Structure to design on (1144 residues):
């Protein structure tokens, strides 16, 4: 009896410990507070000295590390002198906090110089995400960083590794954002062109030949190649994010295979690649094992794909400890894949499927299908990018406030078209600008409805050119139902949709002359951008706005107000 | 009898005509509406290509021409992409419209990109004025122009001339305003340095040697010398304004004397000069007669004074019609006076007196005397400029709104000092930064009181250097009571004040190691800046704020709200 009691006591004790631990685990969700000062700083990220936007002096900005369920609180003080700022938390769905999405013109009035604004949101899902400016062309000036969200203690990833590493990929221009914006908004149009450098973790190497050392100094330690130091035999999870303004990239580590395991915060059915294609706005985790000759270093490289490159490849050192991390590998850096091997890119896109055991099944049918024809246009002589011949503009009054408060005159109440005679459009002919218009109109989606988006690529205004566009959706993840070449056929191609194990993502490429089909549930009350993540394309109209369930949105913080027609709510 | 009636009828008729004309004259005061789009444009003002801020494509901006009593209505649309804007109407007192003063941090929230703001004010006094950005360092980027206000029809100036001409003087930097601001706000401090060029009506000539033609092209017609074409024998009124960021200038026309007749909108007792000293923020009218050899052209030049120059003199062509305006004069441009001939500068300052018949007599005694010791300081390692060892900052909430609405927490309620032991301060010793602080405190002046300001210059933080500072008062004109060398003596020097015929001005120089004494009546309800018009000095704290009679200020337009703590008035 005593023995039984003792055993029962012991079981009770164990139970108590377990319950305590569980409570402890649940209570682990906590507030993580950050204080950020945004300022211009002289940086020589690729050896060429120019002003970059920095967070607490850093370009790229600091990583936000949190645990699933944490509340992130970021106090952002704008010290940019005359320039406003807004920061988007890319991949964070902002469920219940659509006003914290950080998108100028949509969710908030930009933060003016001297002001402090507080972003507050929950990271409700583990994975690799990013943040970046969502104001004008400000992202291009270096305002970006990573968000890594870990699983709660005691919950494991479905793959194992020894160490976690972060890799931010970006491209870098020497022009100021004001020069670029002026060129893009001018007649004659001046395209931003290919970037001067590709950066890995904020470091590139521009050739300084012919430039004064005060302008460009190849020996500046700021532009030493970044290094990824590894221990032989260990496996690393590389969390890779692309924050490029323009470039689609291929990432690879010389002689090391990579296993793709995560995309945009979702587990991928693992597959092995020699090079990872990554488009602006995407994140991936890959596993790589340091299983090569540990007596030397290896190259990590990125090169431009999808556009004819005019930028040297970016390099970093995959450094086997204890070799000096500055010791260059004895080989030439691998050149990477051909820029125009579209087939290889499409194949990799298709290879990304949801991991078995983690599949979220999409609804079988959509309630609505929106076909978005991607074209370039001229409107009143200005070069623009358009969807269904509509080049979209954002108002100076945040749409979330305008819609929630039933304001009139902020945006065009006539909805943009769900299609534009896509069945008869010749995607291989030079865009002829028929009926091109610019508009502030938005798509209003029935709450909880299922929406399919068919992104249809086409020829630009230059013969035989079709660009790739990385499309990013705010506030939601979507299922990637398929990729195709040529013209989408509404009756035939829908049959090929992957409804079995589609990956969920927030950013997806649209390949040249191809189509990409997505499905999502409009189940997050708010107003959300869906746009090409190439900054110049977005700036010139390649965006649409989805509204859904705004009547369910709670009180928008007053700090989101103040600009445009929201001044009408001022009552002194 | 019939004859008498006829005569009476005729007199009546004449009277009626006269009354009608008078009514007509009174009714001539009218609204003058302007629609301005502010944008960045590529300009080559001195042959070097850089972005300038333009109004409707123009840098400098268009002249506002009006008649005394007119209401000026300027709809300003900000198309600066990510940068805000505010425009100050320099010399316009804004009586009854203090919210239209265009000063960020004082009278309004800056205009955000995409927004349109309407400035509305009466030009109640004839004369030559100017407008310019009053936001960050934006003036330096070229956002400025002239305001000329003519007398009502039938009222004559007390001098005669044949034609009216406008001359805008400025200096020009190749750095962006963001680079300059970053340098000024950094540790280590990086001074903006002397300008690359001096501009006359927006044209300078930088040496392009060694630079690519795409960057700097000496044959660009944008940077041809500007020309002032005259007809032999005619007299010209030159309305000259200095919009420099930094430089004090001497202006002269080779072999032509000038008669000074107006300063800051007030008639000057005429005096003749070979060169006109003009400080940033000042306007003058001078009369010049084309009485030289009409078979050649002459140089118009500007050169830097008060600072050791490192900038080539600015040139323009004083062109005798019908000679080709591009034909260079056969002589070398006159070099202008020595930069450090302070005595000559002080003498010219002293020569500027109110014109007989137009003297406004100042009150005999002040109600309050504020001594402002001008120094350079370091505060927490940052280089600042200070008054009485207080380096002033402006809040992100406009002070006019904060005070009128009794908001707390916007500015330091403890007033700054009216003096700082000036009797014992050694103005010839290097500033030692004792007790230097930065503060948002303001001076509150009793309404309708008479205030004397003694500007006392001193040594900077560099041995044997005392700068000149052009001080500008918003909302008022002041009487210039005197200039002196060395330390001001409160008992002795007040006896030397010119109370007989002091000129009224809104901007006045403080010469190196000297003092300048001013008097004004605080009779304009509002909140008003008084500051050094050197943009970098203002940016780094060389300003004070005067509040007076805000309780009499009418309703501030809601469009002035929206930033900082004015968001607390938002009631959705």
């Amino acid at each position: 009896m005593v023995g039984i009691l003792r055993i029962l006591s012991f079981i009770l004790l164990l139970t108590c410990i377990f319950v305590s631990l569980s409570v402890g685990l649940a209570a682990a969700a906590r507030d993580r507070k950050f204080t950020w000062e945004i300022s211009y700083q002289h940086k020589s990220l690729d050896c060429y000295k120019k002003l970059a936007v920095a967070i607490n002096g850093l370009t790229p900005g600091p990583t936000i590390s949190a645990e699933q369920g944490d509340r992130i609180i970021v106090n952002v003080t704008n010290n940019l002198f005359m320039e406003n700022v807004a920061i988007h938390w890319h991949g964070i769905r902002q469920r219940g906090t659509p006003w914290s999405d950080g998108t100028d013109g949509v969710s908030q009035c930009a933060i003016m110089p001297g002001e402090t604004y507080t972003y507050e949101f929950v990271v409700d899902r583990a994975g690799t995400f990013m943040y970046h400016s969502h104001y004008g062309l400000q992202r291009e000036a270096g305002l970006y960083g990573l968000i890594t969200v870990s699983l709660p203690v005691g919950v494991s990833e479905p793959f194992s590794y020894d160490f976690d590493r972060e890799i931010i990929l970006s491209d870098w221009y020497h022009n100021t954002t004001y020069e670029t914006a002026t060129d893009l908004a001018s007649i004659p149009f001046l395209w931003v062109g290919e970037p001067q450098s590709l950066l890995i973790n904020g470091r590139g190497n521009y050739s300084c030949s012919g430039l004064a050392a005060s302008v460009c100094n190849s020996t500046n330690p700021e532009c030493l190649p970044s290094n990824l130091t590894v221990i032989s035999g260990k496996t690393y999870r590389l969390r890779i994010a692309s924050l490029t303004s323009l470039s689609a990239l291929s990432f690879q580590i010389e002689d090391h295979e990579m296993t793709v395991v995560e995309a945009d915060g979702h587990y991928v059915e693992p597959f092995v690649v020699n090079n990872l294609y990554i488009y602006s706005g995407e994140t991936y985790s890959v596993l790589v094992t340091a299983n090569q000759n540990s007596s030397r270093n290896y190259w990590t490289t990125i090169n431009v794909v999808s556009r004819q490159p005019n930028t040297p490849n970016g390099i970093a050192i995959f450094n086997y400890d204890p070799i000096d991390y500055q010791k260059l590998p004895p080989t030439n850096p691998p050149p990477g894949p051909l820029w125009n091997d579209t087939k290889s890119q499409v194949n990799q896109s298709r290879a990304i499927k949801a991991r078995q055991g983690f599949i979220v099944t999409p609804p079988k049918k959509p309630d609505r299908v929106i076909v978005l024809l991607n074209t370039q246009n001229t409107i009143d002589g200005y070069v623009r990018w358009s969807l269904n011949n509509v080049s979209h503009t954002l108002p100076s009054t945040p749409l979330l406030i305008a819609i929630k408060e039933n304001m009139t005159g902020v945006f065009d109440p006539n909805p943009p078209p769900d299609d534009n005679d896509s069945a008869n459009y010749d995607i291989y002919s030079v865009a002829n600008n028929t009926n091109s218009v610019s508009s502030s109109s938005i798509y209003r989606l029935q709450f909880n409805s299922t929406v399919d988006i068919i992104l249809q690529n086409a020829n630009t205004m230059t013969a035989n050119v079709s660009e790739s566009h990385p499309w990013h959706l705010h506030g939601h993840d979507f299922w990637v139902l398929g990729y195709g070449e040529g013209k989408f056929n509404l009756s035939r191609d829908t049959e090929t949709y992957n409804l079995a194990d589609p990956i969920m993502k927030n950013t997806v490429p649209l390949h040249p002359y191809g189509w990409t089909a997505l499905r999502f549930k409009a189940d997050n009350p708010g107003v959300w951008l869906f746009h090409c993540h190439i900054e110049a394309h977005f700036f010139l109209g390649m965006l649409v706005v989805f509204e859904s369930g705004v009547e369910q949105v709670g009180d928008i913080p007053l700090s989101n107000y103040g600009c445009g027609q929201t001044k009408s709510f001022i009552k002194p």
